[in-house]
Amino acid sequence: MKTNIAIIGSGNLGIAIAKGLVNSQLVPDAAQGLGVRISIHNKEAVAISDIIILCVQPKQLEEVLTEIKPLLQEEKHLLVSTITGISIDEISAQLDNKKIPIVRAVPNTAIAIGTSMTCLCHKHANEAQVASIVRLFNCLGETLLIEERLMKAATVLAASGIAFFMRYLRAATQAGIQLGFDAKEAQHIAVQTAKGAALLLQTSDSHPESEIDKVTTPEGCTIAGLNEMEHQGLSSALIKGILTSFEKINSIRK
């Protein structure tokens, strides 16, 4: 059975999800360059859709829900929110506590190329509906069902995490340039090496330290570099940065 998906909000994440859906061939046609119908009318989009993905800013949510609320049907629609810091109960309350199935999703911008890490939680959704959302986001990367209390932490680790890894790759590239590579070569080496490191853990289900042990040799250059990085506070800085982001996300809506 054909499922129609509406994405409300055309910021970076909304566009990334649309691109990911097209690239995954969940959206078969190529209209409008992305394989989607584009409309400025939220009501029109909701009326013809089964799954509604909300990708607006938190301050825009109340207005959007007020507009589409009369059209939402418990037996037809499934609401997916990607909005940071807004709980399922808060969304439900703005829908006059209609028992619309609601899923919260925390993807990251790698969803545009089908490699997102997306964390999900839900309420009022049955097993079939949850399975359909998991299936949808699995086409756009990998998914993990978690408790709602962990959604803010997931935002920091998965969504903000893209930026944290980009900063490492930028630093590694700069170091490569200083060692003699041109910028393009240095970035290519850094990116492919990071990809290989991640895949090693993913395919072997091993711990990072066990993979590090395979690379370090007594009195070698790798352990010398690692020890200097730790002396300069690499691990501590990363942990503090993630925890600082978590503290910030907890203070955004108080």
List the helices and strands and how they pair.
Layout: E1 5-8, H1 12-23, H2 42-47, E2 51-54, H3 58-68, E3 78-81, H4 88-94, E4 102-106, E5 116-123, H5 127-138, E6 141-145, H6 151-179, H7 183-204, H8 208-215, H9 221-231, H10 234-251
Parallel strand pairs: 1-2, 2-3, 3-4, 5-6
Antiparallel strand pairs: 4-5
Helix pairs in contact: 6-7, 6-10
Would you write up a description of this structure?
This protein has two domains: 5-146, NAD(P)-binding Rossmann-like Domain (Rossmann fold); 155-251, Orthogonal Bundle (ProC C-terminal domain-like fold). By secondary structure, it is α/β, with parallel strands linked by helices. The termini are far apart. The protein has a six-stranded mixed sheet with strand order 1-2-3-4-5-6, sandwiched between helices. α6 (151-179) packs across α7 and α6 runs antiparallel to α10. The protein contains ten helices and six strands, in the order βααβαβαββαβααααα. The radius of gyration is 21 Å and the shape is elongated.
Class by alpha and beta content = alpha/beta
Mean pLDDT value: 89
- What percent of residues adopt helix (DSSP H or I)? 40-55%
Q: What is the name of the CATH topology of the largest domain?
A: Rossmann fold
Strand content: 5-15%
* Strand tally: 6
The CATH architecture of the largest domain comes to 3-Layer(aba) Sandwich
Q: For this structure, what is the CATH class of the largest domain?
A: Alpha Beta
The total of helices stands at 10
In this structure, how is the largest beta sheet organized?
6 strands, mixed
Number of domains: 2
CATH superfamily annotation of the largest domain: NAD(P)-binding Rossmann-like Domain
Q: Using the CA coordinates, give the radius of gyration.
A: 21 Å
Q: Strand sequence of the main sheet, in spatial order? A: 1-2-3-4-5-6
Which segments are poorly predicted (pLDDT under 50) over 5 or more consecutive residues? 30-35
* Shape by Cα distribution: elongated
Order of helices and strands: EHHEHEHEEHEHHHHH
- Report, as a whole number of angstroms, the end-to-end distance: 43 Å
